[in-house]
Design a protein that fits this description.
The strands form 2 sheets. The protein has a 5-stranded parallel sheet with strand order 2-6-1-7-8. The chain contains 10 helices and 8 strands. It is globular and about 50 Å long. Helices cover 49% and strands 17% of the residues. It is α/β, with parallel strands linked by helices.
Length: 223
């Protein structure tokens, strides 16, 4: 591959986007930009500051006051809000169940998109989220829409919670993921959508390494 490009990976909650994006970035020596972690960091700050997640103006003002940083390390990306490392805290169930509401506000997304586009200006990035290929990086050379059944996504999230020592209820996770799908797909501004030029990968019956291999093959084909 002679030049560095931007790779957009979109899809619903729990489809494995972050895990896959990290591995693809590692294989290509690209920068992984976890947009979901950025929204989670804002959500965490809003909850900590007792800001109503439905109040877009207050969230925008909060975003203007704080600094969200993603720091790549050999063991993964660390997330900071100002000088506080919040990598684990932003994965709590409270943040998970609120982030779609926070991310639905137009003023919040406009500011976040500016920050994300600036990170990707020089290319060589892998970015995952809900609207990367349609809104954040519409000119990305490689676009993937990664999906899986609600049941499989809930099962993966359940196993992840158990491994991290978080309490977890599989049936409740199914309900929460289905609700997030509805919120993300029906929000007015920049909803979850498959880009017309994205390649769909259904990972329901695929392993993570198989998905990564598929995406790397797509990158090779383009260049």
């Amino acid at each position: 591959m002679k030049r560095k490009t931007n790779i957009a990976i979109d899809g619903p909650a729990g489809a494995g986007k972050s895990t896959v994006a990290k591995m693809v970035a590692e294989q290509l020596s690209y920068l992984y930009i976890d947009t979901g972690a950025m929204y989670r960091a804002l959500t965490y700050s809003a909850l900590k500051s007792s800001i109503d997640p439905k109040d877009g103006r207050k969230l925008w003002e909060l975003l203007d006051k704080i600094s969200i940083r993603l720091k790549p390390t050999s063991s993964g990306t660390l997330v900071y809000v100002n000088d506080e490392e919040v990598t684990e805290e932003i994965r709590s169930s409270e943040v998970t169940n609120t982030v779609s509401i926070v991310a639905s506000h137009e003023e919040v997304r406009i500011e976040m998109v500016k920050q994300q586009q600036k990170m990707a200006e020089s290319g060589g990035t892998v970015m995952d989220g809900r609207d990367i290929g349609t809104h954040v990086l519409p000119h990305a050379d490689v676009k993937v829409f990664l999906t899986a059944s609600v049941e499989e996504r809930a099962k993966r999230r359940h196993e992840e919670n158990i491994q991290k020592g978080f309490p977890s209820d599989l049936d409740k996770l199914k309900e929460e993921i289905a609700r997030r799908d509805e919120l993300d797909s029906n929000r007015e501004f920049a909803p979850l959508q498959q880009a017309s030029d994205a390649v769909v990968i259904d990972s329901t019956h695929m392993s993570i390494p198989d998905v990564v291999e598929n995406i790397l093959h797509l990158v090779e084909e383009r260049f």
